[in-house]
Amino acid sequence: MAVYQDWDEVVLRKPKKIISSNTPKPKVIEDDGEMPEKLKTYSKELSIALQSARQAKGLSQSDLAKKFNIQPSIINDIESGKAIYNKKTYSSLMRSLGVDVKAMKLPPN
Questions:
Q1: C or N: which end of the chain has fewer Cβ atoms within 10 Å?
Q2: CATH at 61
Q3: pTM score over 0.90
């Protein structure tokens, strides 16, 4: 009596990707030739006003940032005119420094 195992060979492979003809094609965005709108940044006047108000109170950029729980780099970007303009943020910063925001002519968002 001969004992043997009658096993079939098992080969493990990744299944092949099936490419069907009804797969959706990626959408092509048409270029109308116009440039996107440039985002508004802080004007030089607004940046200088914030900087002079902050210095009049004797605060550093990091002190003001800690007061608002934001990164000091954000204050630096606002004062250098690199940050994207946000009327609400600017108003709250100026009010905390004791500047009458209603008397200033702030541009809309």
A1: N
A2: 1.10.260.40
A3: no
Alpha-carbon distance of 24 to 42, in angstroms, equals 44
Mean pLDDT per 10-residue interval, the chain, length 109 residues: 72 76 68 68 88 93 92 92 88 90 78
The whole-angstrom separation of Cα 56 and Cα 52 is 6
pLDDT at 50: 92
CB 91 within 8 A of CB 80: no
User: Number of folded domains in the chain?
Assistant: 1
- Residue 68 structure tokens: 């608002």
Q: 92 lies in a domain?
A: yes
Nearest partner of 69 among 93, 95, 100, judged by Cα: 93
Could you say which DSSP state residue 52 is in?
H
